[in-house]
């Protein structure tokens, strides 16, 4: 179930309530007259089945409440009510399979922003990857995969492509296009510092075997296959109630590790492994976006695969 909160101008409240009552996926309808201060109006609350969310939002956006008032949604972990059970049974489909398109647009739009937090996480992840490369530590490499925030913009690219949202694609592309180079430059500078203070022996790195982390730069068909599977799983997780699966996506692709390896190898003059790492990064980024786009396009063609009028902005 999802909790719906609507701030409605007083003159639109009765129609909004009527539309909510007309939908079988709605339960626990409450109206607080004059409770809203900014924007001024009435506060309307209800619990709705996840699979009914798109239709309910479309009904409310049809009144212009997304412009003249406000509409918010939040997930409910527990709802003990016969009315809630009836609403979930009456709404067609399964809640775990339902795509709430407005939620997806909002989430990917937020995660595609280039900001200090995104740059910090990506840089820290690349630094962790560089430590894993230097010490031949797969555990540290996995830690870098989990910390990396790059899946948000990659998912935004897929959403923007499928929904024809050029603004979303531009923001996501800018975040990735600036974020990875910045993180790799910082990683290269820290690697140079490590060489200067004696923490890293260039000759030993270039000549030494690193069997535990060689997979990071070894590009092959399985690199693409894993990226495609990760992209598909990631988009399924983002468009359903199975968001916990995203952790598995983070630790299955070598985007951040490849970026970190490329920076370290470049500093040590090992250009072969550096370029192979860059190729690995490109293959993983492309594979994730392609698979995520395909999954999203298939889900959009389903019976509930549409975006309501409120998503245009």
Automatic annotation (TrEMBL):
Pfam assignment, any one: DUF389
Superkingdom to which the source organism belongs: Bacteria
UniProt KW keywords: Membrane, Transmembrane, Transmembrane helix
Metal-binding keyword on record: no
Transmembrane domains' residue ranges: 114-135, 141-163, 175-199, 219-238, 245-266, 278-298
InterPro entries: DUF389 (IPR005240)
PANTHER family tied to this protein: AT15442P-RELATED (PTHR20992)
Protein name: Membrane protein
Organism: Amycolatopsis bartoniae
């Amino acid at each position: 179930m999802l909790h719906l909160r609507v701030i409605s101008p007083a003159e639109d409240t009765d129609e909004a309530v009527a539309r909510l009552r007309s939908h079988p996926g709605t339960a626990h309808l409450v109206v607080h007259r004059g409770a809203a201060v900014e924007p001024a109006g009435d506060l309307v609350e209800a619990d709705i089945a996840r699979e009914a969310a798109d239709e309910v939002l479309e009904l409310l956006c049809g009144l212009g409440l997304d412009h003249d008032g406000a509409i918010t949604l939040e997930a409910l972990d527990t709802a003990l009510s016969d009315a809630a059970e009836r609403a979930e049974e009456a709404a067609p489909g399964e809640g775990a399979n339902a795509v709430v398109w407005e939620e997806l647009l909002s989430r990917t739009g937020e995660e595609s922003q280039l900001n200090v937090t995104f740059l910090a996480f990506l840089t820290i992840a690349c630094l962790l990857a560089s430590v894993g490369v230097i010490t031949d530590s797969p555990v540290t490499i996995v830690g870098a995969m989990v910390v990396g925030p790059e899946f948000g913009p990659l998912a935004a690219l897929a959403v923007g492509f499928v929904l024809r949202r050029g603004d979303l694609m531009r923001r996501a592309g800018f975040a990735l296009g600036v974020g990875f180079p910045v993180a790799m430059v910082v990683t290269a500078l820290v690697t140079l510092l490590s060489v200067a203070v004696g923490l890293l022996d260039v000759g030993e790195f270039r000549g030494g075997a690193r069997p535990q982390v060689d997979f990071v730069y070894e590009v092959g068909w399985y690199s693409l296959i894993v990226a495609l599977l990760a992209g598909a799983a990631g988009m399924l997780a983002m468009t359903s109630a199975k968001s916990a699966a995203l952790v598995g996506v983070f630790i299955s692709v070598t985007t951040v590790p490849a970026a970190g390896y490329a920076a370290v190898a470049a500093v040590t003059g090992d250009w072969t492994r550096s370029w192979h790492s860059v190729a690995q990064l490109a293959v993983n980024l492309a594979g994730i976006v392609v698979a995520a786009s395909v999954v999203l396009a298939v889900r959009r063609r389903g019976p509930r695969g549409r975006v309501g009028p409120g998503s245009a902005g």
